[in-house]
Amino acid sequence: MATRYYFDIRNGEQLYADKQGIELRDEETAAHEAMQSLLSIAKENPPLDKHSLLAFEVRTDEGPLFQVSLSLGITRR
């Protein structure tokens, strides 16, 4: 039986709640989906002048499970 997973997006201090979610087979599949989606977002929207933390806070209807995060930045010399 599939479980509905929600992928809330954290961009720095802002949190954008996923109101729809997606049904997936298990938590491992949800972690893989979160990582692939996070890498895709980072590729499409790279930071220009500052460091940025992007993350998915993954949860089910029963509560939070885990966070997948990626820290990006450019350090100028």
TrEMBL record:
Highest taxon listed in the record's lineage: Bacteria
The organism's taxonomic lineage, starting at the top: Bacteria, Pseudomonadati, Pseudomonadota, Alphaproteobacteria, Hyphomicrobiales
Provenance organism: Bradyrhizobium pachyrhizi
Domain DUF6894: residue ranges: 4-71
The name this protein goes by in its record: DUF6894 domain-containing protein
InterPro entries registered for this protein in UniProt: DUF6894
